[in-house]
Write the structure tokens for this entry.
Amino acid sequence: MLQRRTFLCVVSVWLVSQAACTFSGGVSTFSNKKHNGGVGYLSSTERSGQWEFDGPPPKVGEVTDRLIYRQMQKEAVYSILSSTKDYGLSEPYPERKRRITAIREMGTVKESERTRHYYEVEFEFVNSVREQSTKED
């Protein structure tokens, strides 16, 4: 009986040590909505110092039609030997031109030769071509 109980304990500990635990938690999004804009998230991928197809992140004052997401979720996978983190972007805003009013890097994820950068941006919508050219001058 004691040998069987010991064997079950050893097997249980071994099974738990082999299984990876997964944790997924959300990064809270800002609920302060601007009348003519909002807050969102985007990412850019860099490889060997060069920006890939999505290009560099926009600069403050730049007008962009880049996809901006409403939510960013931080995800992590833990195991006995290692852990990894990543970010997930979801709920894209409708496609529309926006002027970036603030930007800040929230995190990076290294994937072999690539580094993916995640940003939080504040933006305002650009309503017309005349308004866009006036503010850029």
Remarks:
- Strands lie at 21-26, 37-47, 50-51, 63-64, 69-78, 83-92, 98-111, 114-125.
